[in-house]
Amino acid sequence: MKVFLQTFGCQMNKYDSEIMRSLLSKEGYKFTDDWQEADVILVNTCSVRQHAEERVYSYLGKWGKYKQIKKPNIIIGICGCMAQKEGMNLLDKMPYLNLVCGTYNIPKINEFVRHLLKTGGRRIETSEDYVDFPAPLYEAKENKLSAWIAIMRGCNNYCAYCVVPNVRGREISRPVEEIENEVKELARKGIKEVTLLGQNVNSYNIKYQKSPREIQGISGTKSSESFKDSRGNIKNDFALLLKKINDIEGIERIRFTTSHPKDMSIATIEAVRNLPKVCEHIHLALQSGSDKILKLMNRKYTRTQYQKLIEKIRENVPEVSITTDIMVGFPTETENDFMDTYNLVKEIEFDASYIFKYSTRPGTKAAELKDDVTEETKNERLNKLLSLQKRIAQKKNEKLIGKKVEVLVEKCDTKNSETMCIPELNKFQKCYVGKIRNFKSVSFQSDKDLIGKLVKIKITEVKRGLLYGNRIP
Ligand code: SAH
Ligand code: SF4
Ligand code: F3S
Question: In this predicted model, what pLDDT tens digit does every residue of 212-230 receive, in sequence order?
Answer without folding.
Answer: 433 333 233 333 334 444 5
